[in-house]
Amino acid sequence: MLEWLSIAKGDLLDVEIQLIEIASKKLCLIKTDDCYYATATKCPHAGADLSKGWCEKGYLVCPIHRFQYRLENGRGAEGQGDYLPVYPVKDEGDFLIIGIKKSWFKFW
Ligand code: FES
Fold first, then answer.
1. Could you read off the pLDDT of 53-67 as tens digits, one per residue?
2. Does the keyword Metal-binding apply (predicted)?
3. What does the alpha-carbon distance between residue 74 and residue 50 come to, in Å, rounded to a whole number?
């Protein structure tokens, strides 16, 4: 089950990749020419901060060992065999709405 949380675009930096915090969760927010993507911040390979990486041909590239993760679905590039958690983002004018998986313990 997803919890949809909003963040004002006015609170964002005008950069391609930035670290954001929403509902106490840190995410990597990527702005492309077409849309926004939200991913986990830690690289699945060895935990590097992906907000320090860059985008290349539809992939988020890790700044440490340059593993690549598809922006659309988090799938690692061919041969990596891993994936990066991604979160759905809706662009609602002045706000972005990001879907975060609800932790089971929040139901109690
Ligand atoms: S820590 Fe990201 S590729 Fe190694």
1. 999 999 999 999 999
2. yes
3. 12
